[in-house]
Amino acid sequence: MELKVIKMIGEFINKANELFTAFEFIDKIPDYLYHYSSQNSVFNIINNGELWLSNIKDMNDPTEVSFGVKVIKNILINEKNKYCDEIIKVLELHEEAPLFQEYFFYDKPTFIFSLSQKEDSLSQWINYGDNGGGLSFKMITKKLIENIKTRSNSTYFCYLFPINYFNGEYVESSIQIKNFKSLVSNFLEEAYHKFIETTNDYDEVFFKNYFISMIYIFASMIKADFHQEEAEWRILIIAEGPGNKNIHPVMKGNIIKTVYKIIFETDSPYNLPKQRELSDIFESIMIGPRNHGNYSLKQSINFLMYKCLTSFGVVNFSKGKLV
Fold first, then answer.
1. Is the pTM here over 0.85, yes or no?
2. Neighbouring residues of 163: CB distance < 8 A, sequence distance ≥ 6
3. Residues 275, 46: contact at Cβ < 8 Å?
């Protein structure tokens, strides 16, 4: 690869980093965030001392990305982006041609970890907590981010952001990131000019992959206001490349998928469990409404925490009710 192209990639990444730093100017980051999941997933998190971030291509609802892309198109039009028509044409090429079918260029795989601002939400239990039979972690936001950044080995991106909600007309219902629309439009305008309009044909194809990738990341920050009750936040990591030691192919059911593992391992001369520092980010665990009053389950969770984290934790029951 030409030195000029390598340098331009570095400039592109730096510009994107500046943008995501600007995204972090949020009115208030919650002290606590909540992660809803199945009992099996929670067991694996504690027993193995690992948090798994999902590949951005494996989101629960693929249609939310296509909705986000439509919102981005509307933002470009309303913000009077100088390259609005050209950028939309690139997006349409992506939708039609196999050339741009990757969400992110292969050497920059992208991963997310979803959380909610709601402590005991029926919609979260139903959609993400095994239909109310799962568990949720109450996580200390500051310690969660500190631990993930320390253990991520990622020098490009590691950010926390809230989801922005738009209605069926692609108009904002709830935007928590200040100047989100203008920041996105300005970045795309500058990036299109610098990395596509002024490059040769070969490099243009190369940078269109990066360009499309960023649009899909922006799209992952957007949901339809039908989901607004979820009050979702996400952690985003873009790895340097497939050789990053945190990236692992795993079996999920009968399907091979790629995840980004945040591994909690701390050696101790006292034969303590390596994953005990995982307890630093957990304030408590909640049992879903379908297992309300199941004290056997509560005891088992406490024994699991004691075995793996060297302490009993706070285990609560959901106050919600499912018919």
1. yes
2. 221, 222, 223, 227, 230, 232, 233, 234
3. yes
